[in-house]
Amino acid sequence: MSDRPPGFSTLAVHAGAQPDPTTGARATPIYQTTSFVFNDADHAASLFGLQAFGNIYTRIGNPTNAVLEERVAALEGGTAALAVASGHAAQVVILQQLLQPGDEFIAARKLYGGSINQFTHAFKSFGWNVVWADPDDISSFERAVTPRTKAIFIESIANPAGSITDIEAISTVARKAGVPLIVDNTLASPYLIRPIDHGADIVVHSLTKFLGGHGNSLGGIIVDAGTFDWSTGGKYPMLSEPRPEYHGIRLQETFGNFAFAIACRVLGLRDLGPALSPFNAFMILTGIETLPLRMQKHCENAKAVAEFLAGHPAVASVSYAGLPSDKYNQLARKYAPKGAGAVFTFSLKGGYDAGVNLVSKLQLFSHLANVGDTRSLVIHPASTTHSQLDDAAKVKSGAGPDVVRLSIGIEDKEDLIADLEQALGA
Ligand SMILES: *Cc1c(COP(=O)(O)O)cnc(C)c1O
């Protein structure tokens, strides 16, 4: 092998994987087993005491999942990763390591609708309080910081309109506040944006979307950047204080720059239980091998569709950061020079009714609540994903009544445009 560090596409195919040492299998096998035999009693004891790394039980770790973890950590430039059952499970596991009841975290208001629900309602029942800030107004993050703030949460490319977040500016606020910056990188994927390069301390993904990429498997992943010092001021006791369940070890002291990933595994996944099935890990790994090729095509198609819509008389506006006239185009050039992603919104002159009508007339686009599939997808957020919000909050989060969201797939762009043309014209 040469000394050249492998490029992104090479990592997407190879990182974490080796031919199976027993059988020579070249594709990563699906280790469909709940548990793993110990060499002897000492080995078992050292695994349980975290003195040795190894497999115990698939709720805590699995060799197929481990390849996925190593691959995504490599693609994101992190020190370690933990795969879990879904993007939402990843968010719970992350915040459980950071917040005690009564603590707060600041979240950008422009988020996946499910995350808005999870943060507002489910997390409240744990005593974790979300404070909203406006990603277009960095000072709103500064103003939201209190002594109980434990983290800041943003999306790199934000739902639903595909707006681009100024990660570096918000990471400066997080640094000053002494809290980690968590970036949900689902809509960008590491091919378009690597948040750790811009100051993120933790990256989270719904693997369900572009990384898996084929709309067939749920999964989530947490990437530890290894950048945050958890020991300061006793603010993060899960990481800095002796753990009674592991003979009093302190995770940061013992595991250094991958302590957060370890905490998520041995305290979060072990005790909360949202393990990823090895079968799903296999499906997602297979998807990741073609991530660079797919993202190129997703972005090329999205730009063509956005340009078509921008010129159509029934369309009031298009919100796609890849268009030179878009308000996020400068940020897109800085953070996502290879393409502004494939999820964006547009609004129709006919308002709510026109949105519902369009969705019902489209044939090639599937009407469903997902993004990041090979297939092109459409949804009317105001009547579905964001319907729980009041009208003002809908508009603030980019999901007003006239807004339609698209997730552009990898079909022929001419066919996508023809489908939109017939549906808009009819
Ligand atoms: C889908 C999605 C999630 C939630 O992920 P699941 O795998 O559905 O639990 C979180 N954030 C973003 C940006 C998403 O698109």
Automatic annotation (TrEMBL):
Pfam families per UniProt: Cys_Met_Meta_PP (PF01053)
InterPro entries (alphabetical): Cys/Met-Metab_PyrdxlP-dep_enz, Cys_met_metab_PP, OAc-hSer/O-AcSer_sulfhydrylase, PyrdxlP-dep_Trfase, PyrdxlP-dep_Trfase_major, PyrdxlP-dep_Trfase_small
Task: Note whether Secreted occurs among the keywords.
Answer: no
Q: Which superkingdom does the taxonomy of this entry point to?
A: Bacteria
Which residues in this protein are found as N6-(pyridoxal phosphate)lysine? K209
Instruction: Return the similarity comment.
Output: Belongs to the trans-sulfuration enzymes family.
Q: What is this protein called?
A: O-acetylhomoserine sulfhydrylase
**Species this chain originates from:** Bradyrhizobium huanghuaihaiense
